[in-house]
Amino acid sequence: MEKQGNSAPESQHVNYAAPTDSASGKQAPLGIFPAKKLELERLKPVAMGAHNFVFIHPDDPSLVVKVIKPAMRYENQKKLPLRRRLFRRFKHHKDFLRTVTEHIASYVKAGPRPSFLQRFYCLIETDYGLASVTKAERDKEGNFAPTLRRLLRDGKFDDKAQAALENFFEEFLKSDVIISDIHNIDNLVYSYDEEKDTSRFIVIDGLGESTLLPFCAYFKIFNRLQKLRKIKKMRKAIATTLATKPDTERS
Ligand SMILES: Nc1ncnc2c1ncn2[C@@H]1O[C@H](COP(=O)(O)OP(=O)(O)O)[C@@H](O)[C@H]1O
Ligand SMILES: [Mg+2]
């Protein structure tokens, strides 16, 4: 007799082999997922922050690969006193964890993800250790997108950029994304969106909660208050940067 009820469907067999090049029969290159560690040490970083080196992906210029600076990784290896070791299992790698967590959180709600979140693709192994692969944000001319600080310094924070920043604040307040380092004006870049033919601000760093107890994740109201406080701090940082002479006027 045939089985009735909720028996599991027969498993499907899928061929996961890498695609072959039909002309040569050879295995096609794995693209952004190389079979061995991605080699970056021979390349020049396109940008660097306090913690990271940022590279254009050698096989795909639409992507950036972010690694922890070697000096930071060296710090990671040091044996710290017990009080500093507690709760620091991931040390500088914690940023990866926070970023990934926040990107996952952004998919929980139905509907579109906030437009200020950059595209996060994956974590990958490189000769600098673990790295994240994200979309390379660019300006209309195809250059690396300027940070908010660069825009202010270059005297390019025009009406359009100001309106885009206010849009960002509005959307940021409406979303429940947690960003700990948003007042840092180097963590926002002014990026060109080809589809909409307009530029908007994208957060490229500082996602997630940096405190031991995740109050922002637990209490939405706390997250909102923190956001309001950080936006205020950011406005202050913008005013201070605007008050200093633009780089173009310096002799
Ligand atoms: N996806 C990206 N697109 C364009 N520029 C980026 C991107 N990610 C990082 N950058 C540039 O690299 C700089 C440093 O990156 P960031 O992730 O902020 O490193 P850190 O954690 O060391 O501050 C940023 O200020 C920005 O100029
Ligand atoms: Mg940064």
As for the number of domains, it is 1
Number of strands: 7
- Characterize the main sheet: 5 strands, antiparallel
Weakly predicted, low-confidence segments: 1-5
- Along the chain, the helix and strand elements come as EEEHHHEEHHEEHH
Mean pLDDT: 84
- The name of the CATH topology is Transferase(Phosphotransferase), domain 1
Small molecules (ligands, ions, cofactors) in the structure? adenosine-5'-diphosphate, magnesium ion
**Shape descriptor:** globular
Biggest sheet: strand arrangement: 1-2-3-5-4
Structural class: alpha+beta
User: Over the alpha carbons, how many angstroms does the gyration radius reach?
Assistant: 22 Å
Strand percent estimate:
15-25%
Helix content: 25-40%
Write down the CATH class.
Answer: Mainly Alpha
Which descriptors apply to this entry?
Transferase(Phosphotransferase), domain 1, 7 helices, disordered N terminus, 251 residues, alpha+beta, binds magnesium ion, globular, single chain, binds adenosine-5'-diphosphate, 5-stranded antiparallel β-sheet
Provide a descriptive summary of the structure in words.
The protein is α+β, with helices and mostly antiparallel strands. It has a single domain, classed as Transferase(Phosphotransferase), domain 1, CATH 1.10.510. Helix content is 31%, strand content 17%. It has seven helices and seven strands, in the order E-E-E-H-H-H-E-E-H-H-E-E-H-H. The protein has helices at 70-77, 82-85, 94-108, 148-153, 159-174, 215-218, 220-243; strands at residues 47-48, 52-57, 60-68, 120-126, 129-135, 188-193, 198-203. The strands form two sheets. Strands 1-2-3-5-4 form a five-stranded antiparallel sheet. Strands 6-7 form a two-stranded antiparallel sheet. Strand 6 and strand 7 (198-203) form a beta hairpin. The longest helix has 24 residues, at 220-243. It is globular and about 45 Å long. The protein starts with 46 loop residues before the first strand and ends in an 8-residue tail after the last helix.
